[in-house]
Backbone:
């Protein structure tokens, strides 16, 4: 069974149709990059996968959950699907450690000691062990984003979604975040990532999906897709990102 | 007989101050509980709850608190309920307080960035958990200055209860002035007492803001 199965999904905001029949399958352990111009529907697609956006038609299945919009079904889905946003969205009133331990403790009933050990483990994974008791505002953007990734990982998700997680960062800070993601990918995590980092997509993602006008315009193994675009739209897009 | 403003008169003011404080505290506590519930209802997912809360807030804010006071004091006693002025007064003020706090707190909750809702719901939290662990702690900090500002107004607005025969600080000042005819001493003292109540409140607000600000450097 595939980890993520998206079938002919249509999504509109009012009269504006943003996803016009999107289908996509991701197998467990695969890393898939989603690229495309601004407004092509990349974020919307990603947010549909964990039910943050409601679709009008089609079907989405994620690690055994059919995306269904009841509170209970959504919570069950979200225990298995992590998402990291462009703007980190850490909880500013909690320390790094508390940010990470909160959800496992209250949503999964993980005992305190176990949650703490788990938090220390994921924090080490993103290279921030010494920041356990620090508040988010005292961290750099890159560090905050790594904490956000750790916070998601602490839920032990089966799939991770990343929406332009380096776009808000100063260029010198993107590397540390990309490195964490690369290690996650190597560790076998199933990942879907919307990104503007073409080199990262090309070197880390098994497959890349090019979205255009609300559709999967072209997709294929990353290396091949970037070196031999089949559609003029992708060719133009790739060219525009090289500048 | 004309008396002068001396120690007994001053003690009379102090006792009246006690009543002003009691009224303020009771009205504020009652108003907080009811107002808190209405603030959450105002933001509920159910349209019915939202509408009920909107109507309540709208009605209470459109009616002068004086009318609520008359209604609960004279109206209820006409209907056969014998309620003491203290209860009538604190209940009426509490209702008035609840509508304003509901709006202040709704605004504070809405001031928490919506991304905090998205991040917490993406971590599989229930709506109750989101409120309790993520949203309300942040809304609390935002709500401190307007809430304390309102409380300071409330301390002074409690003087309205004199219309049902309740002797609060302002009313006590009037009574003493009628007897002594020393307005400068009497109302000067009254003003100082109000100041002594309200000034520490403002300081408390600053302090609370700092305490609740832990970990935030800007
Ligand atoms: N909540 C919303 N309400 C209305 N329109 C929306 C909403 N979210 C997105 N849109 C619109 O849907 C379209 C697709 O948006 P989306 O955010 O998915 O694009 P994107 O490919 O992620 O773009 P970017 O690269 O700029 O992030 C855009 O036209 C956007 O304005
Ligand atoms: Mg986007």
Residues:
């Amino acid at each position: 069974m595939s980890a993520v199965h998206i079938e002919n999904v249509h999504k509109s905001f009012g009269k504006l149709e943003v996803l016009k029949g999107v289908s996509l399958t991701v197998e467990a352990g695969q890393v898939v990059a989603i690229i495309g111009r601004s407004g092509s529907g990349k974020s919307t697609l990603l947010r549909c996968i964990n039910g943050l956006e409601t679709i009008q038609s089609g079907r989405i299945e994620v690690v055994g959950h059919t995306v269904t919009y009841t509170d209970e079904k959504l919570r069950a889905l979200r225990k298995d699907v992590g998402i990291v946003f462009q703007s980190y969205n850490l909880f500013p009133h909690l320390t790094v450690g508390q940010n990470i331990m909160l959800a496992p403790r209250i949503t999964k009933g993980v005992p305190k000691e176990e949650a703490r050990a788990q938090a220390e483990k994921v924090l080490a994974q993103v290279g921030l062990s010494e920041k356990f008791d620090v508040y988010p505002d005292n961290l750099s953007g890159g560090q905050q984003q790594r904490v956000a990734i750790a916070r998601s990982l602490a839920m032990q998700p089966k799939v991770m979604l990343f929406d332009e997680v380096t776009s808000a960062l100063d260029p010198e800070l993107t590397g540390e975040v990309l490195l964490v993601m690369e290690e996650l990918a190597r560790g076998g995590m199933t990942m879907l990532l919307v990104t503007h980092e073409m080199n990262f997509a090309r070197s880390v993602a098994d497959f890349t999906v090019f979205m255009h006008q609300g559709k999967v315009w072209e997709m294929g193994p990353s290396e091949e897709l970037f070196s031999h675009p089949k559609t003029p739209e992708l060719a133009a897009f790739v060219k525009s990102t090289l500048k | 007989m004309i008396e002068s403003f001396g120690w007994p008169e001053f003690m009379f003011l102090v006792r009246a101050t006690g009543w002003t404080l009691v009224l303020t505290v009771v009205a504020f506590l009652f108003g907080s509980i009811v107002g808190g519930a209405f603030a959450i209802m105002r933001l509920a997912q159910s349209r019915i709850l939202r509408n009920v809360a909107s109507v309540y807030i709208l009605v209470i804010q459109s009616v002068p608190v004086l009318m609520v006071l008359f209604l609960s004091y004279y109206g209820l006693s006409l209907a056969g309920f014998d309620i003491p002025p203290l209860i009538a007064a604190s209940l009426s003020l509490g209702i008035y307080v609840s509508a304003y706090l509901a709006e202040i707190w709704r605004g504070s909750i809405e001031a928490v960035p919506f991304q905090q809702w998205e991040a917490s719901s993406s971590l599989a939290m229930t709506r109750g958990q989101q409120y309790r662990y993520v949203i309300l702690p942040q809304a609390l900090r935002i709500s401190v200055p307007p809430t304390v500002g309102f409380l300071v107004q409330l301390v002074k607005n409690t003087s309205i209860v004199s219309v049902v025969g309740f002797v609060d600080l302002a009313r006590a000042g009037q009574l003493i002035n009628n007897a002594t005819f020393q307005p400068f001493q009497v109302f000067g003292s009254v003003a100082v007492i109000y100041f002594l109540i309200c000034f520490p409140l403002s300081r408390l607000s600053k302090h609370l803001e700092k305490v609740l600000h832990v970990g935030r450097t800007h």
Notes: The radius of gyration of chain B is 21 Å. The mean pLDDT of chain B is 89. Chain B has one domain: 7-211.
